[in-house]
């Protein structure tokens, strides 16, 4: 499944702050709260420390975080962030996602088909350039102006070498600032070690977003350059003892998307028009996949990655809905909006400078209500089996062929030259495709397309004809050749001529719906996104003028640092200690899923130190996308690995509550102990503790 972690899965259904308190905040590396850290913890980061953090931290382009943990390109991330690689490498009867994988020597490290790592090289403020390009423009003109200036800045940044560099113009503070992020790409990423699913996700769904936890949610990759392990002198050295209660901790990673700076009209529209229908769709999809997985072991293997992502997303949606329905939160947001709106209108000068962005937002949100579900079904591909491989590849090939012949500034953002290496890698990756699974997903999606848009909709008629969703899905999947990476490469290399000449039914479907999909995309961008962006920009500037640049921007899946400490919380009047230990893992084990230990852990019980810390919690401010983030200490040493938040963290997309919002991490002491004594990997354990092969 391409790009299917919880972050990206949730994003298929959902498009789209005041002064920070306590340890709240996901801070950009060029705007760290140095004074607050010094005042609260007596710690001032040096430039050397900041440089280490920036270059040792990594982004997994598919939707997670990671870090270099040796000088030889060793990368630490979560097991669930490696689900796609583990599933894709599990050809035949292998099942690395369930059974784990061990590379006993370097030659045993297989290449993950489509994992890309991004290492942040630099951040450049480009607010003046973007603002000048979009000044006075609205609607379609604003969209085109943004694409043109983004293309220009990204091309200059890449400087003709998009294989080595990736450059993205990032919107910060909801349009108040713009920054150009330059990354070094690593596309040769190989699998070193992954434990069994039953220990990586011990406790399963009952324990998910809860604590105490007893998970070894880790995978180690290795980045390669020119066929050899990458030289990565800036890495996080392992502290084999892990942290202690009360220790200051930092989480450095790539939180996906928060909406703390949005107005209440935007949040209420998000809840009513996107999250609520998205929750219903995900719940129905979960039920369909549950039924499919009951067909046998192979069906369970085929669907397990998507099932995992859906379970995570449903819990996240539930947390979002609880927050957005909380009376206190709603009143607080409305009061914040009213205070800012009153300040903006207090003088003629302010009224002239900021205009009336609130009216623009109301109008755009109402238009979004009319357009969103059609946009989600057609352009986001939910109505065409986008959760599978085949239509995703077909649409990418059709779009790439059409976009690559245009001037770079006029292309859809994903297909600009600066972004093409990642797109091409995904299309040409050698991943397994399961026909029955693809057919099941396609039939479900086509059924939702008809149900959502109506049986009389012209696009529905065009796609289905007189066939049922099941019949059409069978025709598409049985007739396509896109499961073969050689066929996809031929179509990519052949460009428009090859696409036009193709009679592959999946390519024909992608071509058939492309014009209508582009039409609804353009309408949504011109009538919803562009006016909302323009209004957000005015509101952000008003906040800056009133408060100064005292806070952090909403998360944008770019590198952020949060600071906090190892601390538990009170739940229903009872304290929740911040640590769990190996002895608690064995006491919790029942021998039945999801509390069944893998055989490796059963056999190793007598060799392990039962007092070894397993997992711990901190009050670091994190959200989805931080999965795989390292937890580091004042010295810049790794002491843990983020893999989850507690149930109270689910509202963190909209608000942070330091009293009970907790990040959950694997302790480095548990990682080293298990690698040595459970999996008998002295080579890997030595590299973790010594920093080199």
Automatic annotation (TrEMBL):
Belongs to the peptidase S46 family. This is Dipeptidyl-peptidase. Keywords: Aminopeptidase, Hydrolase, Protease, Serine protease, Signal. Catalyzes the removal of dipeptides from the N-terminus of oligopeptides. Residues 1-22 form the signal peptide. Pfam families: Peptidase_S46. InterPro entries: Pep_S46 (IPR019500), Peptidase_S1_PA (IPR009003), Peptidase_S1_PA_chymotrypsin (IPR043504). Its EC number is 3.4.14.-.
């Amino acid at each position: 499944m391409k790009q299917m972690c919880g972050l990206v899965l949730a994003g298929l259904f959902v498009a789209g702050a005041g002064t920070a308190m306590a340890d709240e905040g996901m801070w950009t590396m060029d705007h760290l709260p140095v004074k607050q850290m010094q005042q609260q913890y007596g710690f001032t980061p040096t430039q050397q420390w900041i440089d280490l953090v920036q270059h040792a931290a990594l982004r997994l382009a598919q939707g997670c975080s990671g870090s270099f943990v040796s000088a030889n390109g060793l990368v630490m991330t979560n097991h669930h962030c490696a689900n796609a690689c583990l599933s894709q490498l599990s050809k035949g009867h292998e099942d690395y996602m369930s059974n784990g994988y061990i590379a006993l020597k370097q030659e045993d490290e297989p290449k993950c088909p489509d994992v890309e790592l991004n290492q942040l090289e630099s951040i450049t403020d480009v607010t003046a350039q973007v603002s000048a390009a979009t000044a006075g423009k609205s609607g379609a003109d604003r969209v085109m102006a943004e694409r043109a200036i983004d293309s220009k800045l990204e091309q200059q940044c890449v400087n003709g070498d998009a294989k080595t560099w990736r450059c993205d113009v990032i919107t910060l503070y909801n349009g108040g600032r713009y920054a150009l992020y330059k990354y070094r790409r690593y596309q040769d990423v190989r699998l070193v070690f992954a434990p069994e699913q039953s220990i990586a996700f011990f406790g399963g769904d009952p324990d998910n977003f809860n604590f105490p936890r007893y998970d070894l949610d880790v995978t180690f990759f290795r980045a390669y350059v020119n066929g050899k392990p990458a030289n990565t002198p800036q890495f996080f050295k392992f502290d084999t003892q892990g942290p202690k209660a009360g220790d200051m901790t930092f989480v450095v990673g790539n939180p996906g998307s928060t909406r703390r700076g949005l107005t209440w009209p935007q949040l209420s529209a998000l809840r009513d028009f996107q999250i609520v229908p998205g929750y219903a769709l995900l719940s129905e999809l979960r039920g369909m996949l549950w039924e499919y997985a009951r067909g046998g072991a192979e069906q369970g293997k085929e669907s397990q990655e998507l099932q995992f992502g859906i379970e995570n997303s449903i819990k996240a949606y539930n947390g979002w809905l609880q927050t957005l329905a909380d009376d206190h939160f709603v009143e607080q947001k409305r009061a914040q909006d009213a205070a800012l709106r009153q300040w903006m209108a207090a003088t003629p000068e302010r009224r002239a400078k900021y205009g009336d962005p609130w009216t623009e937002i109301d109008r755009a949100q109402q238009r979004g209500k009319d357009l969103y579900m059609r946009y989600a079904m057609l352009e986001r591909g939910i109505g065409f089996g986008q959760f599978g491989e085949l239509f995703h590849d077909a649409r990418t090939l059709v779009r790439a062929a059409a976009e690559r012949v245009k001037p770079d500034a006029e292309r859809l953002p994903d297909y600009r030259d600066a972004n093409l290496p990642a797109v091409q890698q995904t299309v040409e990756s050698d991943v397994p495709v399961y026909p029955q699974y693809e057919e099941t997903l396609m039939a479900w999606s086509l059924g939702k397309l008809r149900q959502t848009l109506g049986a009389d909709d012209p696009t529905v008629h065009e796609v289905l004809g007189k066939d049922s969703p099941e019949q059409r899905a069978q025709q598409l999947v049985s007739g396509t050749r896109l499961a073969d990476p050689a066929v996809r490469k031929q179509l990519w290399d052949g460009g428009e001529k090859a696409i036009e000449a193709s009679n592959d039914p999946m390519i024909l479907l992608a071509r058939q719906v492309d014009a209508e999909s582009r039409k609804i995309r353009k309408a949504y961008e011109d009538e919803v996104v562009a006016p909302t962006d323009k209004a957000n920009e005015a509101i952000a500037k008003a906040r800056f003028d009133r408060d100064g640049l005292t806070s952090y921007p909403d998360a944008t899946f770019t590198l952020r640092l949060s600071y906090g400490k190892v601390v538990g919380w009170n739940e229903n009047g009872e304290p929740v200690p911040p640590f769990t230990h190996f002895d608690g893992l064995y006491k919790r084990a029942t021998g039945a899923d999801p509390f069944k230990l893998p055989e490796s852990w059963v056999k190793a019980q007598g060799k392990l130190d039962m007092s070894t810390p397993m997992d711990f919690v901190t009050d670091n401010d994190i959200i989805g996308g931080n999965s795989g983030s390292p937890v580091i200490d004042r010295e810049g040493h790794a002491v843990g690995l983020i893999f989850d938040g507690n149930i109270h963290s689910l509202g963190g997309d909209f608000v942070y509550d330091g009293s009970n919002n907790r990040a959950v991490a694997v302790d480095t002491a548990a990682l080293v102990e298990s690698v040595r004594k459970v999996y008998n990997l002295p080579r890997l354990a030595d590299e973790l503790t010594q920093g080199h092969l």
